[in-house]
Amino acid sequence: MLIELLTKKYPGMRLWLTQRLSAVAMVIYLILMLLTLAIRQPRNYETWLGLMSPWWWRVLTLVFFASLFVHAWLGVRDVFKDYVFNLRLRAVLQIVVDVLLIGYLCWISIILWKL
Amino acid sequence: MANVRNRPKNLNLFTIRLPINAVVSILHRMSGMLLFLLIPALIWALQTSLSSESSFDKLGAMFRHWTLKLLLIGFSWPFFHHLYAGLRHLGQDVHWMTTLNKARFSSRVVLVLGACSMLMFAYYIW
């Protein structure tokens, strides 16, 4: 049943699931982050950098931000669909949001890459 | 046709009393939009904290100032609300607490948890 709903016939269901999965991914990362902060208690630059810089933690951080951007993209899209009735204006707003989110993804990738 | 046209309309939002589930729902939306607008601030803060020792210290000094602390506490509420209301939605997606009374109860839990979390956060950073 669930598999049937996730086929190409029901594209909305895929977006629905993406919204949920990205939310769960972010919650897991936030819990890990909170635990790390509680255990390691970074008080200065060195300990903070040491906490953020292992490659696997940078990968998880990138996954968190990618989930955030996908989640935001779907959420803002729904809000535009509900409240912006002028189709041309909605398309323009959507492009602005798309460009912003892609820009954010590049920005955070560079930050994490350079660590 | 005339009847249809003459039907009374009530679009005065101040006379419509939203049920508590709807309040939680619209706040989930509004907090989501606000959090979307805060994304660049989050990335900027992360970048500043990681780029050098002096910028890390500068950011620390910024966050110790009371105006920024107030702002952080203010923005913590939409974050907590969006988190708890989202978890509530995930619960409902797997058919947990979906009857009207239970949904009303979980709405109240979301609002109370959001307020408590903001207060705890305020106490912690002050």
Describe this structure in words.
The complex is a heterodimer of chains A (115) and B (126). Chain A is 86% helix and 0% strand. Chain A is mostly helical and 115 residues long. The N and C termini of chain A lie far apart (45 Å). Chain B has a domain at 62-126. Chain B has helices spanning 2-5, 20-51, 53-64, 66-93, 100-125. With 126 residues, chain B is an all-alpha fold. The longest helix of chain B has 32 residues, at 20-51. Chain B is built from 5 helices and no strands.
What's the arrangement of secondary structure elements?
The complex is a heterodimer of chains A (115) and B (126).
Chain A: H1 2-5, H2 11-40, H3 45-52, H4 55-83, H5 87-114
Chain B: H1 2-5, H2 20-51, H3 53-64, H4 66-93, H5 100-125
List the keywords.
heterodimer; A: 115 residues; mainly alpha; 3 helical TM bundles of succinate and fumarate reductases; B: 126 residues
Q: Give a quick account of the main beta sheet of chain A: strands, pairing sense, barrel closure.
A: none
Question: Number of DSSP helices of chain B?
Answer: 5
Amount of helix of chain B: over 70%
CATH topology category name of chain A = 3 helical TM bundles of succinate and fumarate reductases
Gyration radius over CA of chain B: 20 Å
Low-confidence stretches of chain A: none
Class per helix and strand makeup of chain B: mainly alpha
CATH class of chain A: Mainly Alpha
Beta-strand segment tally of chain B: 0
Overall geometry of chain B: elongated
Give me the number of helical elements of chain A.
Answer: 5
How many E-type strands of chain A? 0
Mean of residue pLDDT values of chain A = 94
Task: Give a nutshell description of this structure.
The complex is a heterodimer of chains A (115) and B (126). Chain A is mainly α and 115 residues long.
